[in-house]
Amino acid sequence: MDDHSDDIRRPLSPRIEVYAGAGRKRWPDDLKAQIAAESLEPDAVVTDVARRHGCRPQQVHDWRRRARLGQLVLPASADTLSFVPVVSESALPAATEPTGSPEAAVVTVEFQGARVEVRGAPGLAVLSDVFIALRRTRSC
Fold first, then answer.
1. For residue 54, which of 17, 100, 22 has the smallest C-alpha distance?
2. Residue 30 Cα distances to 33, 72, 128, angstroms
3. Cβ distance 135 to 114 under 8 Å?
4. Other Cβ atoms closer than 10 A to 89
5. Is the Cα torsion angle 38, 112, 118, 121 positive or negative in sign?
6. What's the mean pLDDT in 102-109?
7. Which terminal residue of the chain has fewer beta carbons within 10 Å of its beta carbon, N or C?
8. Residue 106 β-bridge partners
9. Which helix or strand (DSSP H or E) is residue 114 part of?
10. pLDDT tens digits, residue range 49-72?
11. What is the residue-wise DSSP string for 19-42?
């Protein structure tokens, strides 16, 4: 396509992209996750990351949104903290059950400046909801 503009103040684009493929490109989920994780690194620019991988910035933003919603699992880096599975009290053998009163039980989670305390004897569903909410607010 030729640019027939007479405006000499507007520089011509030095870059031309040609797509010779047929149809849409299919991105595997693991590659989407890798690209989204790369775009979340400190000082990363989404446009630069997208250009390096041959995709559009809108796609990268969509993959980041899917990661925030838990629809796309990002790869964990070596310095990233991760959650451990919650074990239900009913799954523990009888010899390891706590002997204190249920009202005295306190579960405290501190993660990236957030502190959550759950008092009493919360069920597995309550603890699971706390961890899911914390992960969603602190992940992306």
1. 17
2. 5, 9, 26
3. no
4. 13
5. positive
6. 70
7. N
8. 119
9. strand 114-119
10. 999 999 999 999 999 999 988 898
11. --SSSPPPPPHHHHHHHHHHHTST
